[in-house]
C-alpha cells in the first residue's frame, strides 16, 4: 500500500510539471481537463445567466465603453498570442462583453472569452484605464486557462486524498480522522490555495501587458488595486495564507515590479515588446 501511495504522489508530481506552459510567465501548469468542453460549458452557463429573469443586462453608455475596451484588449491578446506561438491556446474563443446591473463589486471572464462586468465595480474603476485593468486581469485568467488548471489540481488533490485513506485503512478511526484533517489543511494551505494565489498574480502580470498593448497606461493599475483594497474593511479579510488571493500589499508590490515590462508593450504594433 505504501508503494501505491508513493506511485500516486509521483504521478501527481509528473502531472504537475509535465504539461503546458502559461504565456508570458513561462510557468508549467497541470491541465488535463478538456479546454474545448470547458468553453462549451462556459458558453452555455453565460447564456443562461444573461437570459435569467433576475439578470438585468445593461445597454447604456457604460456598456458601450466596456464592449469597446474589451474588443481592444481581445485584439491585443490575439496579436500577442499569434506573434509568440500561442495561437492554439485561444482557439475557439468567442469574445462577449456585457455589463450587468448589480451592486456587487466584481467582474469575471469564463473560458472562451465570456466577460461580465458588474455595475457595482464602476465607481472603483473610475475611468477607461481602470476598466482596462480589471478586464485585462479577468481576461488573463481565461487566456492562461486557470479554470482548467484549478479543476485539474482539485482532481489530483482528491485522488491523493483517496490514496491516503486507503493507505491508513488499518489505523484506528481516531487516527484516520487526525490524518485526514491534517491532509485537508495541507492540501488547501500548501497546494490548492497557493496555486490560486499564483494564478491571481499571474493574471495581474498578463493583464498589465494586455492593457498596455491595447493602449491603456499600465501605471493606472496601481491606483485601481489601491481603490479595490480600500473596499475591504479592516479585519474582515482572511490571512494571506488562508486566502485564494494574495494580500493587497503583496499584489500592489508585485504589480509595481511588473510595470517596467508592461510599459515596453505600450501600443505594440507587433505583439512584441517595444525597445
Automatic annotation (TrEMBL):
Keywords for this protein: Hydrolase, Metal-binding, Metalloprotease, Protease, Zinc
Example GO BP: protein quality control for misfolded or incompletely synthesized proteins
Cofactors required: Zn(2+)
GO terms for MF: metal ion binding; metalloendopeptidase activity
CDD domains reported for this sequence: M48C_Oma1_like (cd07331)
GO CC terms: membrane
Cofactor note: Binds 1 zinc ion per subunit.
UniProt-listed Gene3D superfamilies: Metalloproteases ('zincins'), catalytic domain
Peptidase M48 domain sequence ranges: 87-257
Family per record: Belongs to the peptidase M48 family.
Name this polypeptide is given: Peptidase family M48
Annotated source species: Pedobacter westerhofensis
Amino acid at each position: 500500500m505504501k508503494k501505491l501511495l508513493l506511485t500516486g504522489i509521483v504521478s501527481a508530481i509528473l502531472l504537475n510539471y509535465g504539461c503546458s506552459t502559461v504565456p508570458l510567465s513561462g510557468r508549467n501548469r497541470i491541465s488535463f481537463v478538456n479546454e474545448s468542453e470547458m468553453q462549451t460549458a462556459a458558453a452555455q452557463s453565460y447564456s443562461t445567466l444573461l437570459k435569467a429573469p433576475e439578470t438585468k443586462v445593461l445597454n447604456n453608455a457604460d456598456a458601450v465603453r466596456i464592449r469597446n475596451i474589451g474588443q481592444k484588449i481581445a485584439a491585443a491578446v490575439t496579436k500577442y498570442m499569434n506573434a509568440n506561438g500561442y495561437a492554439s491556446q485561444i482557439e475557439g474563443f468567442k469574445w462577449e462583453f456585457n455589463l450587468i446591473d448589480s451592486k456587487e463589486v466584481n467582474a469575471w471572464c469564463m473560458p472562451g472569452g465570456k466577460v461580465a462586468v458588474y455595475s457595482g465595480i464602476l465607481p472603483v474603476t473610475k475611468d477607461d484605464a481602470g476598466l482596462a485593468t480589471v478586464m485585462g486581469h479577468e481576461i488573463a485568467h481565461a487566456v492562461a486557462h486557470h479554470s482548467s488548471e484549478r479543476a485539474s489540481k482539485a482532481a489530483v488533490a482528491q485522488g491523493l486524498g483517496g490514496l491516503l485513506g486507503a493507505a491508513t485503512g488499518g489505523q484506528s478511526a481516531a487516527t484516520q480522522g487526525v490524518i485526514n484533517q491534517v491532509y485537508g489543511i495541507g492540501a488547501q494551505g500548501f497546494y490548492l490555495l497557493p496555486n490560486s494565489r499564483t494564478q491571481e498574480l499571474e493574471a495581474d502580470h498578463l493583464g498589465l501587458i494586455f492593457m498596455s498593448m491595447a493602449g491603456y497606461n499600465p501605471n493606472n493599475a496601481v491606483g485601481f488595486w489601491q481603490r479595490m483594497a480600500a473596499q475591504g474593511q479592516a479585519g474582515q479579510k482572511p490571512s494571506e495564507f488562508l486566502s485564494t488571493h494574495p494580500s493587497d500589499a503583496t499584489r500592489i508590490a508585485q504589480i509595481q515590479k511588473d510595470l517596467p515590462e508592461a510599459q515596453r508593450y505600450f501600443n505594440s504594433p507587433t505583439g512584441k515588446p517595444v525597445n
